Amino acid sequence: MPVGEPYIPDKIVVHLGPPDSNAQNVSISFPDYLKNVASSEIYPTWPENALRANIYAQASFALNRVYTEWYRSRGYDFDITNTTQYDQAFVFGRNVFEDISRLVDELFNSYLTRGDTIQPFFSQFCNGTTVTCEGLSQWGTVELANQGYTPYEILQYYYGDDINIVTDAPVRINAESYPGRPLRIGDSENAVVTLQKYLNRVSQNYPAIPKISPVDGVFGESTENAVKTFQRIFNLNPDGIVGQQTWYRLTYLYTAVKGLAELQSEGIRYSDIALQFPEVLQPGDTGEYVQVLQYYLAVIGYFVPSVPVVAVDGTFGQETQNAVYAFQALAGLPQDGIVGQQTWNMIYEAYNGILNTIPENYFGQGPALYPGYILTQGTSGESVAELQRYLNEISRVYPTIPQVTPTGYFGSETKRAVMEFQRLFGLRQTGNVGLLTWNKIASVYEDVRSEISNTEGQFTGQELQEGMRDNA
């Protein structure tokens, strides 16, 4: 799972034995996995509050394994085992209890976090009779429920007062964090941001690794030097190229030094995953970062009346400052009209909250909102399918943009179409679709659909012949 806001994987791969055993892997939907685990670990006759507390803990434990890529970063091809020595009980093919199935259907997209961290909490638990541990006692939850404890109070009893329950998390196709191809000098994408942040954090424990500043998503010389040093320390080929072996070795070390798979975790915060940001934006600034800020504010203002909608013109003027003031007041932040890291993170969080709550087809047949992350070669999903549909519609009247096969996978032909679009419309030809490219594609798509503009380079859709008399 790429580092970012956690989500519920549509499938989870379970190894039916200890990690190093030659056992079968099975892929199963996350709700069905959780129903099996709950039916194998706890009893349906227990008080409902005890059942709920246990299901929260079981879901969070499994999601922590997925989020941290606990096994995949160690070279395995599965997400979790069915062995209680390492994980939680799972009996492939077993029947599940009806009451437990009903509760899981309600709770499967909820999980635990600690404090202001966002990753699923490593909710260690044991049965509390034959085996005891520092985490939740399964039989102990029964006693607490009989005393009138709510599920949340039961969880606080075992894990501490700063435990939170995240509800209604989005369900998405699970994808490994490795970007699908080696990263090297000249690359510029979200995966490079992740790489730079991982290296900087690991360097706190291994200070020979030079710090990368700024963390800007551009794989330059400082990033290459940090990669080479990391590779030398951990006996990898020091070529400065981040292939799968280097990526997962770094992921493994990052999880270890952050303690993400431990009861007491350093944690991942929104500031760790926010999009690359130039430290501060203020009145008088211009450029792409200001356009990104304005786009987020404009979308927020569309749904939140107290935040005025701003023009996306790349200039931080009075209109943009007023919108920042309004957002800071709404979010309970100091109202200085300046966008520092905290304000940026809150704006980004609010934008993603809107993405996750608006119903499908809210905008009818119009273009969808920017999905909140860079689309690049190797990306797949509904947002890529939308992008391909927009590009194909645009190519009808801009014939130098090649048609792409609408597979939902961002391959080389999609990258070529994106680069030609960027060339035609004066954007940086990266082949990646960030906010500004998405916004321009959406705007041109709307124009083409509405047939309201014909600009230089645009094909009118029909062959022009002498003697024709119409607008074309």
Kindly state the percentage of residues in helix.
40-55%
Query: How many structural domains can be distinguished in the coordinates?
Result: 4
Q: Using DSSP, what is the number of strands?
A: 9
Strand content: 5-15%
**H/I helix tally:** 15
Q: Classify the secondary structure makeup into a structural class.
A: mainly alpha
Per the principal axes of the C-alpha atoms, what is the gross shape? globular
Q: How would the blueprint of this fold be written?
A:
Blueprint: E1 8-9, E2 11-15, E3 25-29, H1 30-41, H2 48-67, E4 80-81, H3 98-107, E5 111-114, E6 125-126, E7 136-137, H4 138-146, H5 151-159, E8 163-166, E9 171-172, H6 190-205, H7 221-233, H8 244-258, H9 270-273, H10 288-303, H11 318-331, H12 341-357, H13 382-395, H14 412-424, H15 435-450
Parallel strand pairs: 1-9, 2-4, 6-7
Antiparallel strand pairs: 2-3, 5-8
Helix pairs in contact: 1-3, 2-3, 2-4, 2-5, 6-8, 10-12, 13-15
Question: What's this entry about, in short?
Answer:
This protein has 472 residues and is mainly alpha-helical. 42% of the residues lie in helices and 6% in strands. The protein is globular and about 70 Å long.
